[in-house]
Design a protein that fits this description.
Length: 115
């Protein structure tokens, strides 16, 4: 990305897309337990801006992770239920299943998820 960024003209479509990717990676490469309210706002904006069903599912899984760790368990459960309506990749399905398991009342909420 850095190499492409050096070749992209400032303000060009490529430069703008690279900026979006950098911002995305700054969130998803961070430990979700350390996500901030600014990260949550970025994630929710990503849900709204998603350009494909798979991208939408990815952002929803991130939002569900946020809600599970920092927000509203009920909202996290709503997101899990909404994912049943989407076509998911095997990775999406594993993340969904791990989140659903972690949200079960009998599950130890301190359990570390492998997302």
């Amino acid at each position: 990305m850095d190499e492409l960024g050096r070749k992209a003209s400032a303000g060009s479509p490529l430069a703008k897309e690279l900026d979006k990717l950098r911002a995305r990676y700054q969130v998803i490469l961070k430990d979700p337990a350390a996500w901030t309210s600014q990260d949550a706002a970025f994630i929710r904006d990503g849900v709204d801006r998603a350009q494909s069903p798979l991208e939408y599912a990815s952002w929803l899984l991130d939002e569900c992770t946020w809600e599970r760790l920092h927000g509203d368990r009920t909202r996290a459960l709503q997101i899990i239920a909404s994912l049943d309506e989407l076509k998911l990749t095997p990775l999406h399905k594993r993340r969904r299943d791990a989140l659903a398991a972690a949200l079960r009342p009998e599950t130890n909420t301190e359990h570390q998820l492998d997302l």
